[in-house]
Amino acid sequence: MPQHYYSNQPDAQHDRRAIEEQLKGSTYRFISDAGVFSKKGVDYGSKVLIEAMEFSPGSEVLDVGCGYGPMGLTAARMVKNGHVTMVDVNSRAVELAKENALLNGITNVSIMESDLFTAVKGKSFDVILTNPPIRAGKETVHAIFEQAYEHLREGGALWVVIQKKQGAPSTKEKLTKLFGDVQEVTKDKGYRIFKALKPLK
């Protein structure tokens, strides 16, 4: 059975490549490789989320399923006085994300291997970002949403990108059940960006 980008230890033969991307008004250089998500360039869904996301410069941010790092590293430049934690189950993606942080001179990040939220147990964040691994199945995707709720501070926001054809309506329904307050921030070429706010007690 072929492995997916959400495998822990991808065995795909290496195929490293350099990518240059314009994200949120800045130029980034990334190294990608076989066995990671969207190896040929930053995927359109992540770009839509990156352009939409907004948060204060002192935020503590978590990027779940960071891949080789485009969303988390862009967020790190946005939160100059804050910090971004980036996690992924894929060990190759984690090493690439660390390399790409150095390549782009970004230091306010922690990057670690983690099966969903296991590496950040007991920690809480102002913002959580995710481009969820749809191919891993609805159970995994919904687990990300549920655990995100537990790891957000009151008033914190979960930002999600998802394609309409890959379950945007059911995603919004699930998020509304969990959070109550869910906004569709933008839509672009079938992609939906949802922002779910954790209520204040």
Characterize the structure shown.
The protein contains five helices and nine strands; from the N terminus they run ββαβαβαββαβαββ. By secondary structure, it is α/β, with parallel strands linked by helices. The protein is globular. The strands form two sheets. The chain has a seven-stranded mixed β-sheet with strand order 5-4-3-6-7-9-8, sandwiched between helices. A two-stranded antiparallel sheet has the order 1-2. This is 16S rRNA methyltransferase. Keywords: Methyltransferase, Transferase. It holds the Pfam family MTS.
Secondary structure elements and pairings:
Layout lengths: L16 E7 L2 E7 L11 H9 L7 E5 L5 H9 L4 E6 L2 H13 L5 E5 L11 E6 L7 H14 E12 L4 H12 L1 E8 L2 E7 L4
Parallel strand pairs: 3-4, 3-6, 4-5, 6-7
Antiparallel strand pairs: 1-2, 7-9, 8-9
Name the features.
single chain; 201 residues; alpha/beta; Rossmann fold; 7-stranded mixed beta sheet; two-stranded antiparallel ribbon; 5 helices; 28% helix; 31% strand; globular; disordered N terminus
CATH superfamily: Vaccinia Virus protein VP39
Q: Give the tally of structural domains.
A: 1
DSSP strand tally: 9
Identify the CATH architecture: 3-Layer(aba) Sandwich
Morphology: globular
Largest sheet: 7 strands, mixed
Could you name the CATH topology?
Rossmann fold
Give the C-level CATH assignment. Answer: Alpha Beta
Q: Which strand order do you get reading across the main beta sheet?
A: 5-4-3-6-7-9-8
State the share of residues found in helices, binned by percent: 25-40%
Series of secondary-structure elements, N-terminal to C-terminal:
EEHEHEHEEHEHEE
Number of helices: 5
Q: Which stretches of 5+ consecutive residues score pLDDT under 50?
A: 1-5
Our Rg estimate from Cα atoms comes to 16 Å
What does the average pLDDT come to? Answer: 92
Strand content: 25-35%
Structural class: alpha/beta
Terminal Cα separation, in Å?
47 Å
Protein name: 16S rRNA methyltransferase
Pfam family, one: MTS
Keywords: Methyltransferase, Transferase
GO molecular function: S-adenosylmethionine-dependent methyltransferase activity
